Amino acid sequence: MRMLHTMLRVGDLEASKRFYCEALGMKVLRENEYPEGKFTLCFIGYGDEDSNTVIELTHNWGKTDYTLGDAYGHIALGTDDIRGACERVRSLGYNVTREPGPMKHGTTVIAFVEDPNGYKIELIERS
What we know:
- It is a single chain.
- By secondary structure, this protein is of the alpha/beta class.
- It has two helices and eight strands, in the order E-H-E-E-E-E-H-E-E-E.
- It has a four-stranded mixed beta sheet, with helices on one face.
């Protein structure tokens, strides 16, 4: 077994695709509309779904916002340039909610950014 994808419900699919693709460097891998079900599925990621875990953005037509549950934490992404990643996110008008620095009680350098829906994305500096 292996993990295939994580699904996030999004209110504005185009804004979400811009964030994940422009700010975080992912690519749209496939997108399908389901008119009978009134929803669109868009799969994004860094590589082919056959060998990479991806994110499924689900847009339910006519629904523009969701209540984020308090059990959800975040998605984590590794980067070799955490400061550059935060600058790119900020320059595109998105929020950096925690500046790069050592994690509490540790030495790993982390930062947090927020997507247009309020979902937290943890950036972890990898060497």
